[in-house]
Amino acid sequence: MKLTHLHFQNHYLLKNLELNFSNIKTKKPYSIITFVGENGCGKTTILNEIFNYKISSTIIDKELTNDGFFKTLYLRQNSLYNESMNSINKLIIGNSIYDNTNFMNEVVDSTFSENSRWVNMETLLNQIYKFGDTQLITLIKSNCLNDIYCGEPVAKTINNTNHLTLIDKYSSGQQELLLKLKDIVSISHKLDIILIDEPEQSLHPRWQKEIMPLLTSLLLNNQMNPQIFLATHSEKILESLLERDDTLIIRLYKSSNEIISEDITKMNLSLPNPTMAELDYIIFHIPSFEYHNQLFDYFGSMIDKEWIIDIDSKLEECINEIDISNIIKYQKNMKHKTTTYKMLPTYIRNYYHHPYSNYPAPSYEELETSISILRKIINHIARKE
Question: What domains lie within the chain, and their CATH numbers?
Fold first, then answer.
């Protein structure tokens, strides 16, 4: 069973936030729910509340599985390596973070059993071979993933035995990946929900892009189907999930001191299909030449013009319609042979395509201004059609 919704009431941060995790078309809950947004917008708080679902006093309209409440594994931010690995509390499974009375038994019984389930080796190796990480390939081929622990003191605490492989000799990124794989696949057949807070921590960008496809393929190949909730700042992870039909991406942001949630399909998008450059701009407020170029090209297609001088003229006409009082702010001449371009978006577009020209690079503020006016123009035209 999967979680279909969350409804908070009088939460100190989330107030009365409501979240729907079901696909509008199929009416079925999504398998992967990804929370994105700036710091302080409640991503980790929501994961904490899902983990404490049973005892939470601020979640209303709770759902029940056939055998009670959801069984949940929580992989916390930075919980899988360095100092935190020296503590038996590196993972918390199925019990409250507010009450650790039975924590030791929960971890020993659920996670570190001698007969923990193993994964499809071929699937795992095929994924890792692509990256040529010989250390990880050697370790996994020797079937030692279940013998990975964070160090002898903790291993002895768990079951009084020494283990074949101590993780200390691997890089922090390798540690992060190995321990995520070990702990997720070893007990995932018992779980309803997996919570992952910023899985990109310590991972090389190439692994950030592959971590979610790797985990989901491993779970699928072993007939495990827990629902995954994750919070991330990584555009690589976001990019890897963008085209998946089983994934819901939710943006969280603050407005008038309240946390607002927004399905990616309902964001204020200007392009016909979301791109990573546009999501970076909307979610993380990162303007880029790439996004500017996408907007400029899309505007050209909307007005059915290919020649840059024609697009430049239409830009001037549209800006006069929308913001004539600030027209000077959007003007920036650039001359090429006998042609003079007048508008700032055209200047930036030409610089993007010909960065070695004699003209100075546009400033950060100019890039922001130009993206903003292009979005306004595109939305203005779309409303008129």
Answer: 5-267 (3.40.50.300), 289-384 (no CATH)
